[in-house]
Each structure stands twice: as C-alpha cells, then as structure tokens.
Amino acid sequence: MSDRESTDGSGERGERGEGRGGRGGRGGGRGGGGGDRGGDRRLSDGEGQGEQELATKMLQIQSKRFYLDVKQNKRGKFIKVAEISADGRRSQIFLALSTAAEFRDQLSAFSDFYSSLGPPSQENLPEDGKLKSEMMIKDNRRYYLDLKENPRGRFLRVSQTITRGGPRSQIAIPAQGMIEFRDALTDLIEEFGSEDGGFQGELPEGRHCRVENKNFYFDIGQNNRGIYMRISEVKTNFRTAITIPEKSWSRFRDIFDDYVDKMKEAVEAEEAEK
After folding, report:
1. pTM, entire model
2. Which of 14, 95, 120, 201 pairs as cysteine with 100 (C-beta 3.0–4.6 A)?
3. CA-to-CA distance for 64 and 32, rounded, in angstroms?
C-alpha cells in the first residue's frame, strides 16, 4: 500500500492542508473517538474571519481523523465536516443543520445495508464499485452518497457539488465507522437543533430562456438571509450572474413593466410617423 492510500480502503484523495498551530477541542466524540485537537489540526480557509466555533467533535476512524465543527457566522449556524488522512491531506464539506439531520438518517440506512452485505467479493462487484447510492439536495447544493467497494475495502464517499459551477468537495468514511459518525452527528443535532429557519415551503422550479446566442437561467434559492432569485447569463466562454432578494422582486417587476410600456409606446409612435 502506498503512503497515499488509506487503510479504510477508500484511496480517496483530499487537498493538502497547510499545517497551523492547534487548539484545544471543546467536545470529544463518543467512545475512544473523542479527544482534543492535536497540534497538526488543519484550519479551513478563512477560519476565524467572522466565524465562531460553537462545538466540535473529533473521531478517529482507522487511519483517518474527522472533525465535526458547529460554526456560526452572520448567515447562521452550520456544520463543517473535515477529514484528515494519515499523510495530512485534508478534505471537507459543509452541511446546513437540516441537511445534517438528513445525513444522519442516511447514515443509519447505509449502515443497515452495509450490515446485510456478505464478505467482500470482487467477482460480483459492480464495474463502478458502487453498492448503494443516494442524493440529498439543499438549495443550490447537491450531496451524492455512494457506498463503494474496491480491493482495499468498503467506504462511504460523500460528494458535495454546487449547481452550475463551483468546486466539488468530498470525504470518504470507512464503512465500519458510519455508526460512530452518525452518533457524533446526532449529539450535535440534539444540542443545536435541525431547523434552518426561514421559509419552509416548496420553492418554485428554475426557469430557462434562450435569446439569440445567450442562455438565461432563473433559479430560486434560500439561505439564512432569506429567499433570492439568481439570474445567470451564459454563453460560450462567458458567464455572469446577479442575485435579487425576494423582497425586491416586485420593485424589479414594476421597473421592467415600466420599460416594456415605454418601449411599446416608443415603437408605436415611430410606426405612426412612417
């Protein structure tokens, strides 16, 4: 096994974190997984810039360490999950509290499925190595959960993507550690809740229109500041977007209506003069 492969069998690669000084943890994980943050703890980019850490748990699962941090910034509370591999590589995903609760439930289902599997067998293994897959959606983020198997073992890969662009990030949890991971997540959810606040209903579906060589996408989303509309203009090798808060939609509509009426009057006046 190379020094880049983890003993959990995932062989997943994260991005290499730059080492910084450690600090004491405020909450340990269950059983032997909990503990203080070591001196080689990696901090996320921008950590400490307007973010407050409310609680943390550390889990040691095989050769990997996982940090579950409840954080708060001006937009609200969320959970950052960071994976530190044996060679210091780091990868991380971010979960809204409601998404964390859904992920907790998915971990239970995946663990039950994993327990029902027989011994690993390369003969009956699907070509892509996937044994079970699910997806979670939260606003403009999608989370792909894949229980996979390769010659080194079984693991749950969790990939986070952002709609229409943005980096993909992922972590890989050894299959044997899913229950421990779920229990640690449950502790944090019980303490901080699973409500994101704001509108709880169904948001309208996105719309699309094409004008000449341009595509315009209208997407409705929600964050801790409220509901918004993102209008994206896309053409070859070019993309730009604006975000309009929901409270301003009627004002934008009135301005558009005013311009439509004025242009209609101008065109009619021009045609009358011909």
Report:
1. 0.59
2. 95
3. 14
